[in-house]
Amino acid sequence: MFRSISQDIRSAFNYGNMVVKLLIINISVFVVTALIGAFAPGFYHTSILPYLALPGDVSTLMYRPWTLLTHMFLHQGVWHLAGNMIILYWMGNIAGDLLGDRKILPVYILGGLVGAIFYLISYQLMPSIGSYALGASAAALAVTFMAVAIAPDYIVHLILVGAVKIKYIGLAIFLLDIIGSAGSANAGGHLAHLGGTLFGLLFVGLLRNGTDLSAIFYKKDTSSRRKNPNLRIAHKSENNKKAQSQTKTSDSISEVDRILEKIKRQGYESLTDEEKEVLYKASKS
Q1: Fewest CB within a 10 Å sphere: which of 13, 90, 173, 232?
Q2: Among 177, 214, 204, 188, CA closest to 83
Q3: pLDDT tens for residues 167-194?
Q4: Domain positions in the chain
């Protein structure tokens, strides 16, 4: 049985999109740390948690800089994990469909880092908010608000509620974090959430202006470029082919823009199968 489960997990990780990979990593880390915490609580709280969670004290952070990354994969309790993974799966797939799978990991990591900065600043001002931070909330909310910013009128169906545009889900989350940051027991966490939220919005704003922050995660392919290209005369037929190719590319971009605009106005469900296929192919290019 365990071998079969392990094979299923490996298959899902190898062939799933980035959202699935992040879910598997987060859940795996939770299972391991939860088991250690259950059977060796003293060891977990003295030798595991302090070295994976993000310390609010900057002098401690200097000796544990890796916690800027590890804290966003660490959760305390099943409901903490479930809440973050549900919204990551839900909104992450929307964002991946609209902007491409390659945007998910960079936004998750960068959003988590911005959330960490918000927590660290708030801890210096309010040391009573908690001595360490953990959880994927800021990272997941960065992905969430990337989806909200790119397609605010995208419609989802909620149990007991019905059809809701994701901009209203985003607004509810934002207001809850604003309220929670004002003196609640988890004020530092809510401030970190706001950091992830603002990064998701900023990412899309910069992307619309031609700046893709996710590009720093991927090397540009320069293998086909020549350091000293020779002057070459192109025949008329070659020029015609090049012009036709450029025309097709321009038409494809225009079609994707039209589809995104339709999503904003009428929601994703209004798309035809052909339009969904065009959007899917564009997200993979």
Answers
A1: 232
A2: 177
A3: 999 999 999 999 988 866 778 889 999 9
A4: 2-217, 236-284
